Every structure is written in structure tokens, then in C-alpha cells.
Amino acid sequence: MPSSNERRMEEIQHILEELAAEAAEGTPIIVEGPRDRESLERLEVKGDVISAKTSGKTLLDTLQEIEDHSKGEVILLMDFDRRGKEMTARLIKNLEKSSVKTNLVYWKKLSSLVGRDVKDIEGLASYVQTLNKKIGKNVTNPSF
Fold first, then answer.
1. Minimal CA–CA distance to 79: which of 48, 43, 44, 40?
2. Among 12, 67, 113, 127, which residue's beta carbon has the most beta carbons within 10 A?
3. What are the tens digits of pLDDT across the range 95-106?
4. pTM for the whole thing?
5. What is the pLDDT of residues 106-116, one digit of tens each?
6. Could you tell me if 51 and 31 are in contact, meaning their C-beta atoms sit under 8 angstroms apart?
7. What distance in Å separates the CA atoms of residue 17 and residue 23, rounded to the nearest whole number?
8. CATH topology of domain 4-133
């Protein structure tokens, strides 16, 4: 019978695989910053990942970039803290005005699984690596 850490790792792996598949199909993923994008890359989630909080970028710039890249839907993957939740709400409100559908499924699933242990997407790759070590998968990078 798998341990709770093994079950958690399996669930995280499943979520990340689904996220990677959607990203590969062209659905843009919106994260807060460049380190969040790097964390997703380490977790083998590649595709059109847009940083909402890059220096010098305004909310209007971010919204324009999202509209330019989206094909009607984006995946929002902001941090799990208060500021991340506030940014998510602001983006949803503004993107709905532009008829861009926002997908929060992955954020909700990951938040419920790791939200107590990880405050941001940036820390997700390290968390996965640590969890892998705990369950005996001694890996040098956190991908699966």
C-alpha cells in the first residue's frame, strides 16, 4: 500500500502531466515571474509560459500579451499566497472582458495538494524533488 507521500507524488505527477499536455497543445500558462517559468520547465512543463510580473511590465501590457498568445483560453497558475490570489482575481476580471476563458483547474488541484507546504510555483520543483527523496526516488532533477 502506497504511503501518503507516494500518493501525493502520484497526484502531483498526474496533474503536471495533464498541464504539460495542455501546454504542448498551445494553451498559454500565466505565472507570476521568470522563476515560476523556470520551475515549470524543470518539471517538464514546456510551452507558452507568460510571466505576468516581469520588471517594467504593467497589467495592461500583461493583458495584451495574454490576448495576443491565447486562442480563447489560458491557464492561470499564480502563487498560492494572498498576493497570488489577488492577482488571479484581477486577471480573471480583466480577461473575461476580452472573452478569454481562464482555467483554474490546475491551480486549484495543486493548491489543495501542496498549498500548505509551497507558497509559490517557483518552489514547486524543489518540493517535488524533496518529496521524491522522501519516498526513495533519489533523483538529481525533479522531473518524472
1. 40
2. 12
3. 988 889 999 999
4. 0.87
5. 999 999 999 88
6. yes
7. 10
8. Dna Topoisomerase Vi A Subunit; Chain: A, domain 2 (3.40.1360)
